From TrEMBL:
Residues 12-129 form the SnoaL-like domain. This is Nuclear transport factor 2 family protein. Pfam families: SnoaL_4. Coiled coil: none annotated. It comes from the Bacteria. SUPFAM superfamilies: NTF2-like (SSF54427).
């Protein structure tokens, strides 16, 4: 849902689009400290589409979980594009199309679907609103490859951490 050329961009809309794009980019580039800044102190995460229960967890626990998996991939790309945005005074809801590609060696897994982001305004800086994610829900449309790549990524993280410890 891009704004039309020649139309005035809404600062809230642009801030939210940037946050969603940063979410994917920070995850893909292992920038976990920056990724953490996008989330509220407590977050509702619903990945039930992948068989995991919906949970309420701290930002630190969420980022710790991702930091214990994502570095094990050789390459990831989370392509996320907002298709629908609803704003109120201090909250927002974004629906976004998702294609997430994950590689470890010859192993590959792609999932397609949607993310639903729930956000709240945290402050205003230079007349631009700052937002944080309070809830994230994944809806799955399809998969290619195998989820076995997750186990390979987890094993890579363990191996890499052992090698780093041994090098010290």
């Amino acid at each position: 849902m891009a704004h039309q050329q020649g139309s005035k961009a809404n600062a809230d809309e642009i801030s939210l689009r940037k946050l969603v794009r940063d979410f994917g980019a920070f995850a893909d580039n292992g920038l976990f400290d920056q990724l953490g800044t996008l989330f509220a102190p407590e977050v509702r995460l619903d990945y039930s589409a992948l068989g995991a229960p919906a949970v309420q967890l701290s930002r630190e626990a969420l980022i710790g979980n991702w930091a214990s998996l994502l570095p094990g991939f050789d390459l990831t790309l989370h392509d996320i594009d907002i298709s629908d945005l609803t704003l109120t005074a201090d909250t927002a809801r974004c629906e976004a199309a998702l294609q997430a590609d994950h590689f470890v060696g010859a192993h590959y897994w792609q999932l397609t679907g949607r993310y639903s982001f729930e956000l709240r305004r945290t402050s205003v800086r230079w007349n631009i609103a700052c937002w944080e994610i309070t809830a994230l829900t994944l809806s799955l449309d399809g998969e290619l490859g195998s989820r076995e790549v997750l186990a390979a990524a987890t094993a890579n993280v363990s191996r890499r951490r052992s090698a780093e410890s041994a090098a010290r």
